[in-house]
Amino acid sequence: MARDVTTVDLDLDDRVATVWLDRPRRLNAVTPELVADLLTVLDRVAADENVGAVVLAGRGRAFCSGHDLKQPPPEQESRRRLEQLQDVTRALRGLPQPVVGAVHGYAIGAGAEFALGCDLVVAADDAVFAFPEVGLGLSVTNGASRLLPLLVGPMRAKEMIMLGEHVDAATAHAIGLVNRVVPVGALSEHAHSLARSLAERPAAALALAKRAVDRGVDGTLDAALELEVSHALITEHTPEVAASKEEFGQR
Questions:
Q1: How much is the pTM?
Q2: Dmax over Cα atoms in the chain, in whole Å?
Q3: Which of 16, 50, 223, 225 is the S-S candidate for 195 at Cβ 3.0 to 4.6 Å?
Q4: Residue 217 in this model has a pLDDT that exceeds 90
């Protein structure tokens, strides 16, 4: 690996690569370091011909609680930071191997968007999904404006994005946001069993199937990603966002 990775862990077993978001004390909240580490690990997985399928999971009590608002403002230039976050969606969908999201606890904001980037999602019965950006004065930034309507329909997507309400696992399954819901104690085994089943299939045919479906529905994803960056740059420095961060820091 070209650089040291500290916030994402990788396990390899029986042709299944498990990519762990590994900031459990912060509920795997997203920082620029975590994004960079995740991209590094996904690059490694993409190049490994011995990996037939991938599980994306979070250590600790949550899958990913969204951006870490308690971190100091990033020094990285805003457009580059936003595009690097979007690179996670590009990387997940660009992997030749199918990706199974194993979601438990919170999948909020960027965490929910990471789940959208997976090919299949297994949710624990304690999973909670939400897109809170609008309520914070921000904009969705990681493909949600395109990928979420494809899964749940435009009306439901607008409701989720505009209101930012929490969606439990049962509702997520009912609206097509996840494939399966299982007891939280069975999540890892169920997700890995599904990944092993995928890894047993011919790799070339599996990669082509993934590519064909994605290209069939993603004709305007790149345009959506660019529009999201423009909106995020507009909203990032508004008084509403500053007030939201100050309020969050006092909790």
A1: 0.88
A2: 53
A3: 16
A4: no
